[in-house]
Amino acid sequence: MRYSSFRFPILIVLCCIQLAGCRLPQAFLTYREKPPYPTQNIETLTAEAEASAANQKWHTALTRYEQALMLKPDDEKLLAAFEQTRSQRDIHITKLQNRLYLLQATVLSDEISLLEEMAEADPTNLHIRQQLKSAKAKQGELYYFLLQCADNAVVLKRSQRGLACLHLANKLPYHTADEERIASLKKQLTQIATQEQQEALAARAPVKPLQAERLAEQAEQRQQENQQSKKAANNVKQLSKLQERFSLALQRQDFLSAQSLFSEIEKMAPNDPDLKKQRKALKQQTQYYVQAQTQKGIELYSTGYPEQALETWKPLLKLSPKSQELHNHIDRAKRFLKKLNQLQKDNHDDITIQ
């Protein structure tokens, strides 16, 4: 009798749950049967994607292309547009990253000085020490970015930007190891700046009458210089795109593409001092990947998955074709699978005869 007052509400709740349980699956199925965009077709989605890409709304553009590909997955033009938009998105992110590096470099030295003073005042503060360690670890990455910025400024004849990058690089502790390179870049940028000032003064000065032949020679010379400048600028842009694609390939662990892109970079800029470091980074990351995947295949093979192990090992031969260890693992897996298939065939034949 003490629970009689609760019986009626409990019965009502149970009835509601039962009714909801009967109706919910039908409602859910009805909702799932509706198409995601009943009023939009491929043309509308493609137009929205192109407009979003033009306004650098990359997420919206890629989403619209994906929705269009769901309606027509084998359309080569749609696939090409999707891949091109994704590549433009990645390049845009890389440019923003470069701007972020430049912004970080302008304040990094002051930030480290302040953190060092704070750490000296309170050496037991772990948070301050961690911030100082993170800021110092960032120095090397920013330093090489600033040197590359100065190199590009020389090619593009942007003296102010190049000198600003060198000024920031000189504030970092690594500059003593590249004094000759920094001095050479500073000299070239100073000459470019002087030439720019002379051209600006010449443009303001009154033009004296010259002979027609002299004018024609100067016009032809300027035209040749402009063509050379355009060619150099195009090479820089192409090299910059190759560098960006190379970095993305490394991030995605697509080492075959990274090796191909690095070969193109070597052909375009054989005298680039950073090629040695990039070659070393590519070789190390490739070796680490091959070792990790080889070990993964060994674990699969030892736990009774020889086919999966073979599928893991085979692609590695393109990255390390001379690896005797890989060849041994693959040969062993093939022999095992061959014997296993023969045993299964023999057992099948015995069952059939019986």
From TrEMBL:
Region Disordered: start-end pairs: 216-235
InterPro entries: TPR-like_helical_dom_sf (IPR011990)
Domain of life: Bacteria
Protein name: Tetratricopeptide repeat protein
Native species: Zooshikella ganghwensis
